[in-house]
Amino acid sequence: FIGFYGRCLRGIPVERQQDLARRGTGKICLEDRYAEPTLVTGLGTKFTQELRAGMKIMLPGSVGQARVDEVLSDTQLRIAGEMRELAALELLTQAGGTAFKAVPHVNQDDMYRAVYQRLNKGECIGIFPEGGSHDRTEMLPLKAGATLMALGATAANPDLGLKIVPTGLNYFHPSKFRSRAVIDFGQPIDVPPELVEQYRRGGDAKRQACDAFLETIVEGLKQVTLNTPDLETLKLIQAGRRLYQPTQHSLTMAQQVELTRRFIKGYNVYRDLPEVKELRERIADYNQQLHYYGIRDHQVETMRIGRAEAGALFVWRVVWLLIMGLIALPGTVINAPVFVVTSVVSKRKARAALAASTVKVRASDVIATWKILITLVLVPFLYSMYSAMAVVFVRRAPRWAQSDVIERVAGMATWSVYLWAYALTAFMSYTALVFGEQAVDIVKSVRPLFLTLIVGSEHTQVLVQQRQELSDDITELVNELGPQIYPEFSTTRISEQLGDGRTTHANIINESADAFHRKMREGEQALRQRINGAVSSSRASPTNEPEDCEPPSPPPAPRQRRASKYAFNPPTPRTMETLNSISPMEFLSNVTGTILGTVASAAEQAASTASAAAAPDSEQSDKDKPPAEHDDGALTPDPRKGLFYFT
Fold it and tell me: If you count Cβ atoms within 10 Å of the first and of the last residue's Cβ in the chain, which end, N or C, has fewer?
């Protein structure tokens, strides 16, 4: 199956040693790691039958491997070099020894010959020099195969004019369908003639030439990839990049990747500065607060609004969520088996890969790989089955389903009905994906609105203010230190340095989904203007207020909260427990009527104020009344109902 798709892409087959590894009989150990570090002793082994000079022995978990130099007997052999990995030594010196695999030597002459033929024809070859997939935040040590191909081809044909183009694949969410990715192409690398001459001499000179050229390739790849020592550092850099405010506030994906790469370089240079250390601690606290609230950084801006406006937007977005959900429902039902099978199988494979690998972090690459493989098989099978079912239904339609449309379709040829059904299934599936993505964005935007309604501005506004202060400090520090690394920084700014990076969406389904999203945003703007207008008019004081009217009572003193290690006081555990116990849909049924009632009462109060101004004879009757308490958008707990209501 994989070989079929590889041949369709004109791939050159490569036989890997680890794919041919076989479990060896018995166990191996080191009897004296200090006096005889290269003498391996077997326990119940058959070295003379399973191994020979030139093969390799591999330890479990790929913690170490060594080339067999000489097979002495069924229970003893000598390896070419001492194993120095700590994990390998622990396995080899433990009581009872350790299991091993016998890895045969693979002759790659046919593969190199095919590569040289392609290059001499003027074709391009794509190589993944790390030799495997992983999800680490830095590159693995590169294999020497790329240098052998480049130097060998140039040595055989000096007029080849070979160039190596470093290419970086930068994924945003690699384990999700239709997630975004950015492909960066670096500066082409020429093959140095002096290294080619050194390669021709063979022996140690050939090895040194390959090592020197490999270092050049590594540096080229670092210019087009993101490399940090660990995941925490990458999260810190990404948070700093999001908080930075360039002159161009909307950056494309390519610009985001390039900006992140420059942040990594700047952080590696200035990480020991006191200002950078302080910002690092503040960003870590800010990320912890976002995790505490269960929101993302870009959602903090949504929490700038008051409770009345948040409640109206909450209802509005839920309505649009239902509309887009209905549009995506048919395609979701059709592809439900794909979603279930890919999720279950990929997670199971990821757990197995994590247990057997020492280089994977979350095995997101394994999840993505198995999702693709399963989809390539399952989707065509399901669509073919649905199309066949459609043909049977048209040919044997029951009486309740008979109509003019069914009769017209029944008059078509069987293969035509099948193709139309297949195309319709694919169209519905793609529509569900596009509109489903919009629905997911709406679902994510509901959480900040829900927090604003439940927790209140006591915490959300402080979080918004803290983000703004942190963003200002990061922007100021970057603008100060940036010109020291990039001299053109102060004159060109970020939008000109990183290029356009424009993307286009030319299909009708994406345009339709974008149109739906724009309509929702336009409706939100109109709704927010009405809410703000009604609240503002209800808060306005009458111009003809009597002079002897008692002043309103001062606002209550703010409630004192316990000390916290954060820059602000987060909600108490009881508040968060109440918040998490109420689902958004449950809260919607209790808050919808309240929102509409608040807006209506505010409008009536504004109208009554205007009527009072138009009728002077009513002033005397209103003079003795206490001033009205206007809606300030506060959301308080009701001890009688255990819910929340507007006061």
Answer: N
